[in-house]
Write a structure and sequence with these properties.
Elements: E1 7-11, E2 21-25, E3 28-32, H1 35-39, H2 49-70, E4 72-80, E5 85-92, E6 97-105, H3 118-121, E7 128-138, H4 139-154
Antiparallel strand pairs: 1-2, 2-3, 4-5, 5-6, 6-7
């Protein structure tokens, strides 16, 4: 498990579809809902919440790996709401170091399929950063953190 990465995405409850997920980045914490994961009926959506969350983080991992090739910017969704969505913006100029910033966009959660969000990620134009929700790390450490969180999200929780 990577030390020193102040980023975690985890389940805080398995008893409902509201406020059952949490993103922590730096000193910032945000409770999130798994509601839209339950509505995802796309062929790419595996059964069960744990498997659907794993699918989300598999997509994150793929985008992070792509940044390691040539750098750039990737958007990783973590909170789907009726009128907006929250994303992590991962930027790397050199394919080694990364800046990770949480923020909001007016892309509605109902318009995105969590199991295949890449088309929506390409449409993020109005990213509004959340003050204090930012870290810097290596892409390798970020990839390891996402992999560790994926394992935790798949496991049954409280």
């Amino acid at each position: 498990m990577p030390a020193g990465i102040a980023l975690h995405f985890d389940r805080v409850s398995t008893k409902g579809s509201h406020d059952d997920l949490r993103l922590r980045i730096g000193p910032y914490q945000q409770k999130c809902d798994s509601y839209y994961f339950g509505l995802d009926e796309a062929p790419t959506a595996p059964g069960g919440l744990g498997a659907r969350l794993a699918r989300l983080l598999d997509q994150w991992s793929s985008q992070i790996a792509g940044l390691g090739v040539a750098g750039g910017t990737a958007y990783l969704p973590f909170d789907f709401s009726d009128q907006c969505t929250a994303w992590l913006r991962v930027s790397s100029e050199d394919g080694q170091a990364a800046e990770v910033q949480a923020g909001w966009t007016l892309i509605e959660g109902w318009s995105i399929t969590p199991s295949d969000y890449l088309a929506a990620a390409a449409q993020v134009r109005d990213f509004d950063p959340i003050p204090g929700a930012r870290i810097q790390c290596s892409l390798g450490d970020l990839a390891a953190r996402v992999d560790a969180d994926r394992s935790t999200l798949v496991a049954p929780g409280p």
